[in-house]
Design brief:
Order of helices and strands: EEEHHEHEHEHHHEHEH
Strand order of the largest sheet: 1-2-4-3-5-6-7-8
Mean pLDDT: 95
Number of strands: 8
Strand content: 15-25%
Helix content: 25-40%
Structural class: alpha/beta
Low-confidence stretches: none
Radius of gyration: 18 Å
Largest sheet: 8 strands, mixed
Shape: globular
């Protein structure tokens, strides 16, 4: 695998930003790695960080480079600050940056496929919300989306913010401001209902959360809504907390689950 630290200027954010990128390569004598590159235009996984992290964290806390080597897939890991992958009420337009600018920039720099069947997104915690939100808002772009320990019920979080009982309420206020997120594109449950009502294609969805995780209840609620709407969702609720040992294990399950043609 090639590991690239890419710094570039964002027109949307009006600031220089960064992404880390993994690109597959064919090797025959690299000890301990099974690298392979299957085609010229690469399938790609956009891998999103959590609230307290940045674009470097997946490389620092997991063996993601080793895990993806045998899949022939590129990985793009962007930096989005505390934005919840959203156009912030009091901040920058990270939602537009993520969904519009980032793929274009990444495809212009690297040999990434723009085909739906070759594009996937996953993330943890804040990034789990971002991954599902991106895929449900842009279902024509992704074949699959995965959330690990995602903050998935933003309606409940914003109710806690108004009661001054959410531990990251200050950050959520800067993201969503005073607006009611219920039945908006910031509400994942609303997005699922809209796609179902409009008979739009829905990406394959994967959800994992530890049974000792403080976000378990809202992950259970997400599964219940998906079941009510008869939206296919692969769910893994297993022993684990909101920590990297769990996410390192689960990202391997995500990679195995991804509908990637390895032939």
């Amino acid at each position: 695998m090639a590991f690239i630290q890419c710094h570039f200027f964002s027109e949307t954010l009006s600031i220089s930003t960064a992404m880390n990128v993994l690109l597959p390569e064919n090797t025959t004598n690299q000890i301990g790695m099974k690298n392979r590159r299957l085609r010229d235009r690469l399938p790609v996984l956009y891998l999103l960080h959590g609230f307290s992290d940045d674009h470097t964290i997946w490389m620092r806390r997991t063996s993601i480079e080793r895990y993806v080597a045998d899949y022939g897939i590129a990985v793009v890991m962007p930096q989005v600050d505390h934005s919840f992958y959203t156009d912030m009420a009091y901040g920058k337009k990270y939602g537009m940056f993520l969904s519009e600018e980032l793929p274009q920039v990444a495809q212009s720099f690297f040999p990434l496929s723009d085909k739906r069947e070759d594009n996937f997104v996953a993330g943890l915690s804040m990034g789990g919300y971002g991954a599902l939100k991106w895929a449900l808002r842009k279902p024509e772009m992704f074949a699959g989306a995965a959330s690990l320990s995602g903050a998935l019920d933003m309606v409940s979080h914003m109710e806690m913010v108004r009661k001054q009982s959410d531990p990251i309420g200050h950050a959520l206020y800067h993201v969503f401001g005073e607006k009611d997120v219920k039945n908006t594109e910031d509400d994942l449950f609303y997005l699922m209902r809209q796609l179902k009502e409009n008979n739009q294609p829905i990406p394959k969805l994967f959800q994992a959360c530890g049974t000792e995780d403080f976000l378990l209840e809202e992950n259970v609620s997400f599964r219940q809504v998906a079941e009510e709407l008869q939206i296919p969702l692969t769910t893994t609720f297993s022993k684990g907390e909101h920590e990297w040992g769990y996410w390192d294990k689960m990202i391997q399950e995500v990679l195995e689950w991804l509908p990637i043609n390895k032939d």
